[in-house]
Amino acid sequence: QVQLVESGGGLVQAGGSLRLSCAASGRTFSTYNMGWFRQAPGKEREFVAAISGSGGRTIIADSVKGRFTVSRDNAKNTVYLQMNSLKPEDTGAYYCASPRFLRSTLGIGTNDYNWWGQGTQVTVSS
User: Fold this and answer.
1) With CB atoms 3.0 to 4.6 Å apart as the test, which of 12, 50, 76, 110 could cross-link to 106 if both were Cys?
2) Nearest to residue 121, comparing CAs of 41, 49, 51?
3) CA pair distance 33, 43, nearest whole angstrom
4) Residue 27: pLDDT band by 50, 70, 90 thresholds?
5) Inter-residue contact 37 to 49 (CB < 8 Å)
6) pLDDT tens, 66-78?
7) What is the pLDDT of residues 41-93, one digit of tens each?
């Protein structure tokens, strides 16, 4: 059973920074790609970032490119989302996710992922 636990969310002023963490357990972490998504109230869940198992490949959504970075520490079974220059429109619940199967490509859709964390709330005040 794969478990994903996010942490690091909170309330921050616009222009501030947060680093989210996602701790994974239940299988060989370094083998699998990981993704980050977010969901604002009343909106659909949207892709934020993805990273390959080795950490050598990443994809960042255009809406956060230049401000957010994704990384992982396979020795700690943890993936990170560093968020800088935060804006009020970045407010939402942030989720990490993992696919059931090995994939050579990084998924950017919610259907590309099977296991999800419980989410961590990020609120950016103006």
Assistant:
1) 50
2) 41
3) 25
4) confident
5) no
6) 999 999 999 999 9
7) 999 999 999 999 999 999 999 999 999 999 999 999 999 999 999 999 999 99
Strand partners, 96: 36
Residue 84 β-bridge partners: none
- The C-alpha atoms of residue 126 and residue 106 are separated, in whole angstroms, by 33
Token pair listed for 106: 């990084």
Q: Would you say 29 and 52 are in contact if contact means Cβ atoms under 8 Å apart?
A: no
Q: Which of 45-49's residues contact partners 24+ apart within 8 Å by CB, and which partners?
A: 45/95, 45/110, 47/108, 47/109, 47/110, 48/81, 48/94, 49/81
